[in-house]
Design goal:
With 341 residues, the chain is an alpha/beta fold. The strands form three sheets. Strands 5-6-4-11-12-13-10-14 form an eight-stranded mixed beta sheet, with helices on both faces. It has a six-stranded mixed beta sheet with strand order 8-2-1-9-16-15.
Length: 341
């Protein structure tokens, strides 16, 4: 007697941004997928609140920067397809970014980077220097009177994006479960847990972030002295994040976050009038090179790995998903050498 149950083509361990994105890319190509995570969707770093999708500086060009650029450029159509199939909004918006320029030396460097971006970004986005005078109160203070404005940076709502991916996967017949057998090809995307299993030094780095009740859905994100201020479309503004190699409690917020909140309110006074509605802390997976790790799993024979998103996981996810689907489903390997496990 037959049950009519379809076999699973790809099993993915981990329901974070890499795991769900790869599952979606495989499901979209007709594979039957199962995502297994005992902790649920977005239980780790991917369930945070910041969602900054920003490019590396357009200089000292290398395969990592080229890969990130391709992923950021494909993101609008990729996320629109997720939303269309699953019927849920991932909170994506290419709203750009402003950064203050501190002094004349930095101003000269910003102009030089703008020229390089004109060559490297294929005319699909710009990196330009603009005067701070005359801009809205949203603009950050700048000691030089100038700001960098790039139109490649985008924002995404991490939790909405994961929920949208889950809906799209289900619409294509995929499964997301707390447990399940490893059938078909197996991909491990379990974040810092798997990196620790592999013995990677510093595999987890703690980050803390805050969410304000402030509606500025069409404003650009701000990047000031290592801090991201990200307006989301749902009437919130996220601020993050700390980068901590040492911690006692991975999920607890503390004085470091309160200092970050104070810094954000000084940069953008409108935040000082808004309520902090959530404080978040969690561990982010960090590879030894800070680049994503993709390909054959070095510690689990026959399996694949996609890990090490660290601070750029959501920005890299669309292209990582498609490249991993190429490898897993078709045996086609186009992984940059610097990303190999």
């Amino acid at each position: 007697m037959t049950t009519g149950r379809q076999s699973i083509d790809v099993t993915i361990r981990g329901a974070g941004i890499f795991g769900l994105s790869i599952a979606w890319a495989c499901a979209r190509r007709g594979a039957r997928v199962r995502v297994v995570d005992p902790h649920g969707i977005g239980a780790g770093a991917s369930g945070g609140i910041v969602g900054a999708l920003s490019p590396h500086t357009p200089e000292n060009w290398n395969p990592k920067k080229a890969f990130q650029l391709e992923s950021l450029l494909m993101a609008p159509d990729w996320w629109a397809d997720v939303a269309s199939v699953g019927g849920a909004d991932p909170g994506y918006g290419r709203t750009g970014r402003l950064q203050p320029i501190a002094h004349d030396k930095a101003l000269a460097l910003a102009h030089d980077r703008g020229r390089q971006a004109a060559d490297l970004w294929q005319g699909k986005a710009v990196w330009q220097v603009v005067a701070a005078d005359g801009l809205s109160a949203w603009a950050p203070p700048s000691a030089s009177g100038w700001l960098i404005h790039d139109t490649l940076s985008a924002r995404i709502h991490p939790r909405q994006a994961l929920a949208a991916l889950a809906r799209a996967i289900a619409a294509r017949g995929g499964e997301i479960a707390a447990e399940g057998a490893e059938e078909g090809k197996v991909v491990w995307a379990t974040g810092h847990h798997d990196l620790t299993y592999l013995g990677v030094d510093g595999a987890a780095q703690k980050g803390q972030a805050a969410l304000f009740a402030l509606s500025a859905p069409d404003r650009p994100q701000l990047f000031v002295d290592g801090m991201h201020i990200i307006p989301h479309a749902d009437g919130t503004v996220a601020v993050g994040s700390t980068s901590e190699r040492d911690w006692t409690d991975a999920s607890a917020t503390d004085a470091l976050l309160e200092a970050l909140i104070g810094k954000a309110c000084a940069v953008l006074p409108a935040l000082a009038e808004a309520a902090v509605i959530e404080r978040w802390a969690g561990l982010r997976p960090r590879s030894a090179t800070r680049a994503p790790i993709m390909g054959l799993h070095p510690g689990r024979p026959g399996a694949f790995i996609a890990n090490g998103g660290f601070k750029i996981g959501f920005g890299m996810a669309p292209l990582i998903a498609e490249v991993m689907a190429d490898l897993v489903l078709e045996g086609r390997d186009r992984i940059p050498e610097d990303f190999r496990a």
